[in-house]
Amino acid sequence: MCSPVPIGVAIAGASGRLGRALIQVLQQSTTARLQGALVSPNSPWAGQDAGKLVGVEPLGVILTTNVSEALFKAAVLIDFTTPSATLHHLERCRQQGKAMVIGTTGLEDNAQRLIAQTAQQIAVLQSANFSLGVQLLYQLAASAARVLGTESDIDIIDQHHRHKRDAPSGTALALGERLANTLGLEWPGCLDTVPPGRSTGRAAGKIQFASVRSGETVGEHRVSFTLADEQLSITHQAMSRLAFAKGAVRAAQWLVHQPAAHYTLQDLLEQSVSQGSS
Ligand SMILES: NC(=O)c1ccc[n+]([C@@H]2O[C@H](COP(=O)([O-])OP(=O)(O)OC[C@H]3O[C@@H](n4cnc5c(N)ncnc54)[C@H](OP(=O)(O)O)[C@@H]3O)[C@@H](O)[C@H]2O)c1
């Protein structure tokens, strides 16, 4: 029996933390293959083989600053860069008819609108967190919110490495939005970050956020429901960036078979569950 042809994947942000994890995952995959690797316009890595970034033998993929060149052989782009670079790559994917997986966080509302608009022409899957455990955290937290509801004080704390540029994290915000929807709270109106020196007590009907940035912590999210006499906390800890990279590659493999639309990781998981149960 013939094995299926691996899908061609390009990476944007290849020399970054997630980019390197993606190269490692793709190097070991038999169903997806690295076919393009984009680095930033002034990157010292341009022109070198992608294998050098992860200390392996040459992979036959040259790191490039040219988006068209990176996309040429690929069916899908996986992008973990910066908000402005992501929007630039989105437009190039639209022009070249490639699907796009977006992992970059910190995108403003107008960027989100542009992504939704572009997804009418190409398949786009976007997630603030590609780990499977975090998808489960969303579901468990929503279940807890349904029971403990507005009677409890809800806090979301994210801890990440010292280089992270956005706070609260995209995952913390996505979790907060889900809980707000579950409880019928207005989002983002119910988002509360405690400013230094605030002298009043806790505001009613708010979800409180806090962010810690230290060392090389990959990513930890904790949601707590505190009542008068007890507290329930649910924590997810990513121990390696491979957790995100594996989820993003899985998303890319699914996305290339989907029509143009704006997808979330939840769409992929729901389809997998319904296919598994049918
Ligand atoms: N969704 C998830 O599961 C998830 C998980 C972790 C992180 N993230 C998000 O993913 C993003 C990247 O995270 P990271 O930790 O990998 O950051 P990082 O290590 O700073 O990597 C970002 C990479 O993007 C490159 N880049 C910047 N502008 C570019 C351009 N115009 N074209 C091509 N490459 C460009 C940078 O290159 P230079 O270094 O040369 O500038 C760098 O290599 C962040 O928004 C982060 O919050 C998402």
Walk me through this protein's architecture:
This protein is of the alpha/beta class and 278 residues long. It has 2 domains: 7-130 and 241-277, NAD(P)-binding Rossmann-like Domain (Rossmann fold); 132-238, Dihydrodipicolinate Reductase, domain 2 (2-Layer Sandwich). The protein is 36% helix and 23% strand. The chain has helices spanning 17-28, 67-71, 83-96, 109-118, 132-148, 170-183, 242-255, 265-277, and strands at 7-12, 32-38, 63-64, 76-79, 99-102, 123-126, 153-160, 191-193, 207-213, 219-226, 231-238, 261-263. Strand 5 (99-102), helix 4 and strand 6 form a beta-alpha-beta unit. Helix 1 packs across helix 7 (242-255), helix 3 (83-96) packs parallel to helix 4 and helix 5 (132-148) runs parallel beside helix 6. The model has no long low-confidence stretch (mean pLDDT 95). It binds NADP nicotinamide-adenine-dinucleotide phosphate. Residues 12-13, 15-19, 38-41, 43, 80-82, 85, 103-106, 127-130, 244 line the site of NADP nicotinamide-adenine-dinucleotide phosphate. Residues 12-13, 15-19, 38-41, 43, 80-82, 85, 103-106, 127-130, 244 line the site of NADP nicotinamide-adenine-dinucleotide phosphate (NAP).
